[in-house]
Amino acid sequence: MMNMMSKRLLILEDGSVYEGHGFGSHHYQVGELVFNTGMSGYQEVLSDLSYCGQIVMMTYPMIGNYGVNRDDFESLDPAVFGFVVKEYCEQPSNFRCNLTLDEFLKLKGIPGICHVDTRAITKKLRSSGTMRAIMADEGADVQAVVKLLKETDFLHDQVARVSTQKPFPIPSRGKKVVLMDFGAKHGIIRELSRRNCDLVVVPYNTSAEAILALHPDGVMLSNGPGDPKDMTGAIEVIRELIKHVPIFGICLGHQLISLACGANTVKLKFGHRGCNHPVLNLTTGKVEITSQNHGYAVETESLADTDLIMTHQALNDRSVEGVSHTRYPVFSVQYHPEAAPGPEDANYLFDQFMELMEKENA
């Protein structure tokens, strides 16, 4: 079957060309090529809206072997621009499988390429940093494609593309939590719902007044794609919310809290994407294995002149993985405590949020 697949090219902005076989859609788009080191969880990775505008390459060699099922989605409309794998398994074997990976990618308009040297490409990205890339059919004018790549700017409206357009409730009888949706994973909603939170999910550009008018016990700031500095309106909203209500931020939410408090964020060379990243909890001294997906980080030195203190630190590169406010009930982490995919070492942070709301609203 595989030799029946048409040849497809992966072209990088530095002029590199990798020839492989195509699967999925033919809807090619320029995206930022990034790599994920997870050994499983490709369905959750594909449906994680934080990958909006990116072409995702898995470093684990065989992908597609358990297909795609109805239960493991982190969003209903994936926003990735492409999927790169070493070996694509055409015939998955799993009792939960509803679709093959190829069928799913075709359904969602996502192009895939296999039989490329993902190890070599990963080494290139680790040394040169992430770069623009696009897939193309065999015989494409490589020189023209490279010119297009160099002239194409990275997206700056990813959050607007993936956030909910209208507020919607997920009723329960527990604490009232407003979730600001910057591209929220379903895992965040699942964890809050498990704790009986009365949820209201609101768009990324909702005003502080509108949020406070809902009389929340707490506000959750979700993960999401892109450069946090593009979110100037949300930063102002968060700056106001901090004074009034307990807040828990995850990933992009963590970066936005930090910016709202006067810290700085920087783009990482190739980011943190995978589900085996060790993080030191500076409060307990314990190491947590975490799920991560981000290309930006809070600059450590910039915390010095703020009311934030670092609570968690990455052991791979010593970057900031968590902060806490010294005056207000506000904390955040750079990684994903809801995992999906990944370990659940950090799931306690949702309980910490519940305790914070209980304390502040006693």
Automatic annotation (TrEMBL):
Highest taxon of source: Bacteria
Pathway(s) of this molecule: Amino-acid biosynthesis; L-arginine biosynthesis; carbamoyl phosphate from bicarbonate: step 1/1; Pyrimidine metabolism; UMP biosynthesis via de novo pathway; (S)-dihydroorotate from bicarbonate: step 1/3
Gene Ontology BP annotations: 'de novo' pyrimidine nucleobase biosynthetic process; 'de novo' UMP biosynthetic process; glutamine metabolic process; L-arginine biosynthetic process
Catalytic activity, reaction form: L-glutamine + H2O = L-glutamate + NH4(+); hydrogencarbonate + L-glutamine + 2 ATP + H2O = carbamoyl phosphate + L-glutamate + 2 ADP + phosphate + 2 H(+)
Which keywords does UniProt give here? Amino-acid biosynthesis, Arginine biosynthesis, ATP-binding, Glutamine amidotransferase, Ligase, Nucleotide-binding, Pyrimidine biosynthesis
Which InterPro entries does the record associate with it? Anth_synth/Amidotransfase, CarbamoylP_synth_ssu, CarbamoylP_synth_ssu_N, CarbP_synth_ssu_N_sf, Class_I_gatase-like, CPSase_GATase1, GATASE
Region described as CPSase:
1-175
Residues that bind L-glutamine, according to the entry?
Answer: S50, G224, G226, L252, Q255, N293, G295, Y296
What PANTHER family does this protein's entry cite? CARBAMOYL-PHOSPHATE SYNTHASE SMALL CHAIN (PTHR43418:SF7), MULTIFUNCTIONAL TRYPTOPHAN BIOSYNTHESIS PROTEIN-RELATED (PTHR43418)
Can you tell me which family this protein belongs to?
Belongs to the CarA family.
Instruction: Share what the entry says about its subunit structure, partners included.
Output: Composed of two chains; the small (or glutamine) chain promotes the hydrolysis of glutamine to ammonia, which is used by the large (or ammonia) chain to synthesize carbamoyl phosphate. Tetramer of heterodimers (alpha,beta)4.
Please explain the role this protein plays, according to its UniProt record. Answer: Small subunit of the glutamine-dependent carbamoyl phosphate synthetase (CPSase). CPSase catalyzes the formation of carbamoyl phosphate from the ammonia moiety of glutamine, carbonate, and phosphate donated by ATP, constituting the first step of 2 biosynthetic pathways, one leading to arginine and/or urea and the other to pyrimidine nucleotides. The small subunit (glutamine amidotransferase) binds and cleaves glutamine to supply the large subunit with the substrate ammonia.
- Tell me what this protein is called: Carbamoyl phosphate synthase small chain
What species was this sequence derived from?
Answer: [Clostridium] innocuum 2959
